Task: inverse folding
């Protein structure tokens, strides 16, 4: 049955509250994107999320919405701290999958004709691909410290600079992880993988700032036209996947025990005050911190690789090339945040499943250098086109619990993409456009061709037009390492 | 025991349709399907064994857990599934002796995160058992 969508304005579509929905739905989209969204059936998932107890405001979806597990990808839902629930489906398997952006003092011209070699150097420096393994063998005790300390552990171990922690969501570490709540199997999967990219749509991308839309925000973020940038997209690897899988079974039982009606099993949830929720939160936090440490270690590898390539001094503190961390954002997470609800500030549990935090100007948790403009929001597109840097706004705080989109979203299945790519010299096609791709798997690159993805510019236009997040800069890829 | 599988087109991930003349045959088909995904169809010999035990909520959960055991065995231990002797205990229990190859990490060439409960169907029809399951990749 088609879900009723009421156009509110050029960028908002409302799903009226009907039946057992506790709140209405709200999809940020454009007339151009909404037809694809309707066919995807993801509005049904927005409706399903609206059934969960304690949900506040609306069941929200960003313009990159597509069908996910329980929650749609691009879904945002906030729950009352007393009446609400915690749902692993609202976080996803890749807990704290996220993106970080480095700026640099390098100009595009500094690379000269050595882009192919630079791509190869990055590929060698960062463990990537299926089952990619860390350069470092962690002991069990070290892994437990990673789960508790996140990026702080990595910096203390020499993988990065102390001020990296200032420019990461939550400072690269959330308190409250309990390693004892992370299963042995999850630890077994994750321990060899810390500091590795993984596979699929994970990547490390060296590019440059092609366009600036907001000079003041770009200046605050350290971005200048023509300067080289690096994006790193990865998450909690096998540890996170296993934490999610472990939790779903417990949550299925909890949903029955607490009489939570589930329109979709993948929405399995437990009351926030329950033991099941407490235990999942403790394990999830460990996985979140693992992902922060993961991206921090790869940042270090990138800095070393580029220092070697350009003949600069090694050492994260030298600053010759810049390679400063602009920001690190999470896009699969559940967090306890303070938001205005019904005119009063209260702590709510915000689930972002393929959505990015987008705090507006003045928020106390932002680094001092960004507080006047707002939080950087990093939105990668496909590897053949562009990515964007946005900035969070007060409107996001008012409407979406400070949330924005996270990417482009697929429009073609992996099988279709491989079929489309068959017989084509894909790597050469990218090179002809000035982009050098390195990967251990031609099949992965085929699955990730541009045609497989929606145009992220269409998604960005909705965020900008709706006032949820403003455009700051466009980044264009030059060298991409795919997992 | 006879069963089979096919991949169904799915935008972001991989959907599998499974069938079998019995529920163990269905589970075997699912295990062979994920192994094919993990190895891109590599041949697996019968040289090692692995015990698997599951205590599930229902038949659907049992299928998801079973497939996740196969995935984890491959990615963590390099154990590739070929076949199994599967015994079921009602709708929720499973004991199996899986046979295949061990130490084959280098033949795992695709990353599967997990079998999911999304759109999960496990049912018995007049011609046997059928299931549909989505794998997050």
Result:
């Amino acid at each position: 049955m088609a879900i009723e969508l009421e156009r509110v304005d050029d960028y908002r579509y409302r799903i009226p509250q009907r039946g057992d929905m506790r709140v209405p739905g709200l999809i940020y989209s454009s007339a151009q994107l909404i037809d694809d969204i309707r066919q995807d059936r993801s509005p049904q998932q927005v409706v399903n999320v609206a059934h969960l107890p304690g949900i506040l405001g609306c069941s929200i979806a960003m313009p990159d919405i597509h069908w996910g597990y329980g929650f749609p990808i691009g879904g945002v839902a906030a729950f009352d701290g007393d009446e609400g629930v915690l749902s692993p489906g609202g976080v996803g398997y890749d807990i704290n999958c996220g993106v970080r952006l480095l700026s640099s003092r390098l100009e595009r011209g500094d690379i000269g004709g050595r882009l192919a070699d630079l791509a190869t150097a990055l590929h060698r420096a960062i463990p990537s691909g299926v089952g990619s393994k860390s350069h470092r063998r962690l002991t069990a005790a070290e892994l437990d410290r990673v789960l508790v300390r996140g990026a702080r552990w990595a910096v203390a171990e020499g993988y990065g600079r102390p001020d990296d922690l200032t420019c990461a969501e939550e400072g690269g570490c959330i308190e409250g992880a309990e390693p004892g709540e992370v299963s042995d199997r999850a630890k077994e999967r994750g321990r060899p993988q810390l500091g590795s990219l993984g596979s699929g749509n994970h990547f490390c991308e060296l590019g440059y700032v092609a366009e600036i839309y907001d000079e003041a925000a770009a200046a605050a973020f350290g971005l200048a036209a023509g300067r080289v940038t690096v994006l790193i997209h990865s998450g909690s690897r096998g540890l996170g996947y296993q934490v999610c899988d472990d939790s779903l079974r417990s949550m299925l039982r909890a949903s029955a025990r607490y009489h939570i009606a589930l329109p979709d099993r993948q929405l399995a949830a437990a009351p926030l005050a329950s033991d099941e929720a407490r235990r999942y939160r403790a394990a999830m936090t460990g996985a979140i911190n693992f992902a922060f440490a993961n991206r921090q270690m790869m940042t270090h590898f990138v800095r070393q690789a580029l220092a070697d390539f350009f003949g600069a001094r090694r050492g994260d503190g030298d600053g010759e090339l810049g390679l400063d961390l602009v920001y690190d954002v999470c896009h699969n997470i559940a967090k306890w945040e303070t938001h205005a609800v019904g005119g009063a500030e209260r702590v709510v549990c915000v689930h972002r499943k393929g959505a990015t935090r987008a705090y507006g100007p003045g928020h106390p948790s932002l680094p001092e250098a960004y507080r006047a403009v707002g939080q950087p929001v990093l939105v990668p597109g496909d590897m053949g086109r562009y990515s964007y840097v946005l900035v969070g706004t007060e409107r996001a705080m008012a409407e979406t619990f400070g949330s924005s989109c996270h990417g482009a979203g697929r429009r073609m299945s992996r099988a279709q993409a491989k079929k489309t790519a068959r017989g084509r010299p894909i790597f050469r096609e990218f090179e002809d456009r000035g982009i050098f791709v390195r990967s251990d798997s031609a099949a992965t690159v085929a699955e990730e061709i541009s045609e497989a993805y929606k145009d992220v510019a269409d998604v960005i236009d909705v965020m900008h037009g709706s006032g949820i997040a403003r455009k700051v800069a466009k980044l264009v890829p030059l060298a991409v390492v795919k997992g | 025991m006879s069963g089979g599988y096919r991949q169904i087109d799915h935008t972001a991930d991989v959907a599998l349709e499974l069938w079998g003349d019995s529920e163990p045959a269905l589970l075997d088909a699912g295990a062979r399907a994920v192994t094919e995904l993990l190895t891109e169809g590599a041949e697996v010999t019968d040289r090692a064994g692995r015990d698997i035990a599951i205590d599930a909520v229902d038949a659907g959960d049992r299928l998801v857990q079973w497939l996740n055991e196969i995935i984890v065995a491959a990615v963590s231990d390099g154990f590739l599934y070929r076949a199994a002797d599967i015994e079921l205990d009602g709708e929720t229990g499973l004991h199996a002796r899986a046979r295949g190859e061990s130490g084959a990490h280098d033949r795992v060439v695709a990353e599967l995160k997990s079998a999911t409960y999304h759109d999960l169907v496990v049912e018995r029809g007049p011609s046997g058992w059928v299931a549909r399951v989505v794998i997050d990749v």
Summary: Residues 59-77 of chain B form the longest helix (19 residues). Chain B touches chain A through 31 residues (CB under 8 Å). Residues 76 and 92 of chain B are 25 Å apart (CA to CA).
